[in-house]
Design brief:
single chain, mainly alpha, Arc Repressor Mutant, subunit A, 2 domains, 3-stranded antiparallel beta sheet, 5 strands, about 55% helix, globular
Length: about 220
């Protein structure tokens, strides 16, 4: 390839990259690679290559934002190490954060979906009607099917909005539940620490061979 041809290819690639950057800059939701390919009349493979190049370029320049793939598309978002400043900006003077109950319910839906309201209540041990409504209003969960069994209960699952908020591309990107479950040795230690019955403690001490006090005669 001659130098002139190389310059032409480089210029064409640069124009595609600039167009991708401009579209993603104004997009509200993540933009799929195939949609970008249709808009710019190039192959999906070329779009993915240009997005990877853009992502590497921003990272090399140590910018405050990154180009990432989430929920099946590409979008700009703040750099992870700038999280504390962004969180301070977003939450300052606001009270829209989810409660602990809402986060717990959302986690159950995310990992157990499709799941009914009754099943979530059984896991949490409390009524979750209000929390379910809140999560629906926020757009994090929605009705996705009906239970074929008696009663045809509504089954809930997470939404595209959930993936975007969590920074996930697909649900398989959720961390394994095992990462949050303590090992058996931790559970055993907690159980020992929670025991406060002196009779239980005495019985355990006797079973370990500890001498017991002789009765006064």
């Amino acid at each position: 390839m001659s130098m002139e041809e190389q310059a032409t290819v480089g210029s064409w690639s640069g124009e595609v990259r600039r167009a991708v950057e401009a579209i993603l800059m104004v997009a509200i939701d993540p933009v799929p690679a195939n949609l970008l390919a249709q808009l710019l009349e190039v192959s999906t493979k070329i779009i993915e290559g240009e997005c990877e190049a853009l992502a590497a370029e921003f990272e090399a320049e140590n910018r405050g934002f990154v180009l990432v793939r989430v929920a099946g598309g590409y979008r700009f978002q703040s750099h992870p190490d700038q999280g504390p400043w962004v969180e301070r900006f977003v939450l300052e003077g606001q009270s829209s954060r989810l409660t602990a109950a809402a986060l717990e319910t959302l986690a159950i839906v995310a990992y157990k979906q499709p799941v009914s309201r009754a099943q979530v209540s059984a896991i949490r041990g409390v009524d979750v009607d209000g929390v379910i409504r809140t999560l629906q209003q926020r757009g994090y969960i929605d009705e996705i099917s009906r239970d074929p069994g008696p009663g045809n209960a509504v089954m809930f699952g997470t939404t595209q909005e959930f993936l975007e908020r969590m920074g996930l591309d697909v649900l398989d990107d959720l961390p394994p539940l095992g990462d949050f479950v303590p090992g058996p040795e931790v559970v055993e230690a907690l159980e020992r620490g929670l025991r406060s019955d002196p009779e239980v403690a005495t019985a355990e001490a006797s079973s370990d061979g500890a001498p017991s006090e002789s009765p006064e005669g």
